[in-house]
Design goal:
The chain has 280 residues and is of the alpha+beta class. It has two domains: 85 residues, 434 Repressor (Amino-terminal Domain), CATH 1.10.260; 168 residues, Beta-Lactamase. Helices cover 46% and strands 13% of the residues. The protein has a five-stranded antiparallel sheet. Strand 3 and strand 4 form a beta hairpin. Helix 2 crosses helix 3, helix 2 crosses helix 4 and helix 8 packs parallel to helix 11. The longest helix has 18 residues. It is globular, with a radius of gyration of 21 Å.
Length: 280
């Protein structure tokens, strides 16, 4: 463990991050441009005292779980994350494709896409953030926990999820989910999160086992799907997927594919979220 180098690296990364990038509102009396130690502690789920001792080179060797939490809190790149583990005397684990927080740049894009349904997802289909129009269209998809937070798991284990996509393209969508997951599994070989998800799906869904055995591979970039909304009915949406360079997160943008859907989406915007029961 290189205590002095670790302390300097953590301190400089903390000072380089603007609060807005970490989802923290900057108050009018704020004097520091970077994050405060207590803010890093809050984001990483650890005590302020331990953050202080880390930055002063007085701490015990941090665990790999604690280092992963710090890497997320400080928005470290893959290279910086690897460097952090080396400084702490640990072998870096496989890169985490599933991030706990959406990237700051993608969150800003959600704000810019006001009026257009957009959401940020991990490469495993975990929804990390949604804008208002997306919430109106699909309900809150960030609320799921456990395996249900993954889109493929809900699709193959919850009949209500597939029922919300009644179009003739359901079979295409089903195969696309499996082919995309196969691509992620190849890219993140040995990742315990991916392995556990695939094993769980194989144990619970015969349909998934059949499609997985076909070994089809395809990264999802563009799509068209039919959604059955509980308030305005059928909606035909075009979906564009923009992947980050490391393919760890993606911005999914949904736009109306025909005039009827455009009118129903406009109606949904007017109706708002009052008395809205979200689709599973």
């Amino acid at each position: 463990m290189q205590r002095a180098e670790l302390a300097d690296f953590l301190r400089r990364r903390r000072e380089a991050i603007r609060p807005a990038e970490a989802g923290i509102t900057e108050g009018p009396r704020r004097r520091t441009t970077g994050l405060r130690r207590e803010e890093v502690a809050m984001l990483a789920g650890m005590s302020v005292d331990y953050v202080v001792r880390l930055e002063q080179g007085r701490s015990s060797q941090p665990s790999t779980q604690l280092l992963s939490a710090l890497a997320r809190a400080l928005r470290l790149s893959d290279d910086e994350r690897t460097h952090l583990f080396h400084l702490a005397g640990h072998q870096p684990p496989p890169a985490e494709g599933v991030a706990a927080l959406a990237r700051a740049g993608l969150l800003r894009m959600l704000d810019l896409l006001d009026g257009t349904a957009a959401l940020v997802m991990s490469d495993l289909g975990e929804v990390l953030a949604q804008n208002r129009t997306s919430l109106l269209l699909t309900g809150d998809l960030t609320r799921f926990t456990g395996y249900r937070r993954y889109a493929a798991y809900r699709w193959f284990t919850d009949p209500a999820t597939a029922a919300a996509h009644p179009g003739a393209d359901r079979e295409i969508h089903t195969r696309a989910l499996v082919a995309d997951l196969r691509a992620v599994a190849g890219r993140r070989s040995g990742d315990p999160t991916v392995t556990a998800l695939i094993e769980r799906l194989q144990a619970e869904s015969a349909d998934f086992r059949t499609l997985w055995a076909e070994h089809q591979v395809k990264v999802r970039r563009a799509d068209r799907k039919t959604l059955l909304h509980p308030r305005v009915g059928l909606m035909l949406m075009d979906c564009e997927t923009l992947n980050t360079p490391d393919q760890g997160q993606q911005l999914l943008v949904l736009t109306p594919a025909d005039d009827e859907t455009r009118e129903r989406l406009a109606l949904l915007q007017v109706l708002g979220t009052q008395e809205f029961s979200p689709t599973p």
